[in-house]
Amino acid sequence: MVFKRQFTCQMQIALAEIQLMEFLEKNMVLRVGNDSDNRLRGTVEADTLRGRDGNDTLEGLEGLDLLLGGKNDDQLFGGGGADILSGDGDFTATDNLEKGNDILIGGNSTDTLIAWGDDILVGAGPNQYNAQLITDLQNDPFDTLIVPDGEIDTFIATNKDEIGYTLTVVDYEVGIDLLDLSAFGVSSASDFVEVQDKGNFFELKTPKINNAEIVLRINVDPTLITYI
Fold first, then answer.
1. pTM of the shown model
2. CA distance linking residue 46 with residue 173, whole number of Å
3. CA distance linking residue 138 with residue 124, whole number of Å
4. Strand (E) positions, 84-205?
5. 202, 196 contact by CB (below 8 A)
6. What is the pLDDT along the chain (228 residues), one digit of tens a residue?
């Protein structure tokens, strides 16, 4: 059963890589940062924004965008359009050089948010940079008002460097959003090894897979989540 699950996970990662590469090839605008703290903004077209080093702020604005934070602690705003956001600097399953503690905000559309590190994920939220929202999320993510957008957002936790992390999903919408923890052996609520009700959020611990586990903090009961 464990082998089957790990094989399925590997297949899902490979498929995601193919889909992301196809997505990247279709993007018309490429903007790349440097070792400084960059602020990169997209257009109304499909954009690819790469922050690289530094604590970067990326705004996709309109269009189907791919946002890649890179090293250090980045803030990503997908904006309008179905976007893919990753605080990491690449979209492969083997890249392990650009981990950071990032904040990913999808905006008002169907988005895919990919976590690797002590990240905070928001599927909805504003379509442009909002400094007060960032501060509120850093102070108390589960006391931060996020207006649901009713769009299907997918939250994905990656497992690449045999080091665990704490993942925070702030605004999971029951019956709409999807959660992918297959890289950590979770396909249902019963797979968590520890579940704690903290009042306004749940804290869950996954099994250890490839020497790594994550602590998931999420705003809903794990039995109400749709796992993929």
1. 0.86
2. 26
3. 17
4. 84-86, 103-105, 112-115, 120-122, 154-157, 165-169, 178-180, 194-197, 202-205
5. yes
6. 544 445 454 555 555 555 555 555 554 678 888 888 999 999 888 999 998 888 999 999 988 999 999 888 999 999 999 999 998 876 555 555 567 799 999 999 999 999 999 999 999 999 999 999 999 999 999 999 999 999 999 999 999 878 899 999 999 999 999 999 999 999 999 999 999 999 999 999 999 999 999 999 999 999 999 999
